[in-house]
User: Which sequence fits this backbone?
């Protein structure tokens, strides 16, 4: 089944008695990579959690439609800022965590986990405990676990913000290659990251917030760092993020 | 490295024991306490060897009480923790009851259990169970409740049922917390059994100690105490070893902790 596009309508979030956003609309094209930016507390992570129908402490509402009309459940993979590796499974076990949690992994599951570990370059770590890996390696295992589901929609909440800058650049290349042709929504703090990876950039700004669409450089992902247009756009994007709202 | 670890693991406790016995003997020599108040280490050793048949018989009874109480208490405590985590309605009724049960002093409970269940081994097992139950239930429930949100998010996107989530996510995540409860339980278990024996029994180490005390066989009384301490230590390290087996991913961290 080809990846669906997503249509968010009438999304609202009230934090205490302060509405963070109200009646928000957004469209995420099928097989496209959208980066969601905004300052801290703008509600971008909450919006992503709402799309994933995860728990939120605050009052919220969302109408979510898919372009093909079928529900999103079972077609969605989630990746967070923390790698969320469980310490009681070895690396391979963490990759096929969903199979472990639903029952018992089949030989096919094991084989697939092995292939994914190979793709993220950690085939030799399969039998180690997560504790023995570095932060970047752990996040690569998390990426493999996200891919294991073979979900057509992938939601990522600042997935690369906890690793060092060089590891982050490497993860961009890996993720960009492995997540090609899926519908990806990624929340990020990092304008450069968004400009390297996104087909479309949305900024959540204002009070209550609106979504502002920002142009991205030409060229295929991940865009090289020395791209002059990328540099120019980065300055523009930072200005956009810092600019107060003029509503 | 392994040599040093092995040294600290076995030699230091052994050294502590030697120091303890030396101080014990020193107090005897310096103060001249009569032997019927404090027997010498040698006399206790002699009693241990000479009365080994008698000690073994009573120790066997106490061991059965402790182990049965431990197993029963752990199973019941674990079942309570899981039920509390799973059913909200149960939390409102059972949680206060659990706290009240903790407020009843064990010494007050012992005669009542004796009255209801008689003189035999049953009430002692129950006493041990009662003392073990609470730490297991409360640390288990705490652990189950404090599953990191990120793992619950994953469970949700994987589409797990509540039962799968409880057994596959919350339970393993609760193991470290539960482990501290189990270690506590293991060291408390002999107390329950011995209190039960003190209140009324015709066998067991607690009975033997009271009996020896009444007959001024202080060396035998101390010998029984030594056996009881050995039990408590054995139990603690046994549970600790079992927990390490159950949590192999923590093995490295614990041994390099030193």
Assistant:
């Amino acid at each position: 089944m080809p990846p669906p596009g997503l249509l968010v309508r009438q999304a609202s979030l009230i934090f205490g008695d302060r509405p963070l956003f109200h009646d928000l609309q957004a469209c995420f094209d099928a097989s496209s990579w959208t980066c969601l930016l905004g300052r801290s507390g703008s509600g971008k992570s909450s919006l992503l959690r709402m799309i994933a129908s995860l728990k939120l402490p605050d009052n919220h509402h969302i109408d979510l439609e898919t372009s093909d009309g079928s529900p999103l459940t079972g077609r969605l993979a989630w990746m967070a800022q923390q790698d969320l590796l469980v310490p009681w499974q070895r690396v391979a076990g963490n990759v096929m965590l969903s199979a472990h949690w639903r029952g018992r992994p089949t030989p096919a599951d094991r084989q697939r986990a092995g292939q994914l570990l190979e793709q993220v370059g950690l085939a030799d770590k399969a039998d180690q405990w997560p504790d023995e890996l570095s932060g970047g390696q752990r996040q690569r295992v998390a990426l493999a676990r996200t891919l294991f589901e073979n979900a057509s929609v992938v939601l990522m909440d600042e997935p690369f913000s906890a690793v060092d800058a060089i590891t982050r650049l490497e993860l961009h290349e890996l993720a960009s290659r492995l997540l090609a042709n899926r519908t990806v929504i990624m929340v990020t703090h990092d304008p450069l990251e968004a400009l390297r990876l996104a087909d479309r950039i949305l900024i959540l700004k204002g009070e209550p917030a609106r979504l502002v669409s920002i142009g991205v450089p030409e060229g295929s992902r991940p865009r090289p760092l020395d791209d002059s247009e990328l540099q120019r756009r980065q300055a523009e994007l930072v200005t956009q993020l810092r600019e107060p709202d003029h509503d | 490295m392994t040599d040093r670890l092995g040294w600290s693991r076995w030699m230091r406790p052994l050294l502590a024991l030697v120091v303890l016995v030396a101080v014990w003997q020193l107090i005897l020599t310096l103060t001249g306490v009569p032997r019927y108040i404090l027997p010498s280490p040698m006399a206790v050793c002699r009693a241990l060897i000479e009365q080994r048949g008698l000690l073994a018989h009573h120790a066997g009874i106490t061991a059965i009480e402790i182990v049965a109480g431990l197993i029963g208490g752990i199973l019941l405590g674990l079942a309570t923790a899981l039920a509390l985590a799973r059913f909200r309605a149960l939390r409102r009724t059972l949680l206060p009851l659990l706290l009240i049960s903790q407020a009843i002093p064990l010494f007050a409970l012992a005669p009542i259990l004796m009255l209801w269940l008689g003189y035999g081994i049953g009430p002692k097992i129950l006493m041990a169970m009662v003392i073990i139950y609470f730490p297991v239930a409360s640390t288990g429930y705490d652990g189950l409740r404090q599953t990191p949100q990120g793992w619950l998010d994953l469970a949700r996107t994987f589409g797990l049922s509540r039962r799968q989530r409880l057994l596959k996510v919350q339970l393993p995540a609760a193991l470290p917390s539960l482990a501290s409860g189990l270690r506590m339980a293991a060291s408390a278990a002999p107390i329950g059994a011995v209190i039960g024996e003190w209140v009324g029994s015709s066998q067991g180490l607690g009975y033997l100690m009271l009996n020896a005390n009444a007959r001024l066989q202080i060396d035998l009384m101390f010998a029984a105490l030594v056996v009881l301490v050995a039990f408590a230590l054995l139990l603690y390290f046994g549970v600790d070893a079992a927990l390490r087996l159950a949590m192999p991913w923590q093995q490295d961290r614990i041994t390099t902790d030193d």
Q: What stands out?
A: Residues 83 and 139 of chain A are 5 Å apart (CA to CA). The helical segments of chain A are 44-51, 91-95, 97-102, 107-119, 135-148, 165-178, 191-197, 228-242.
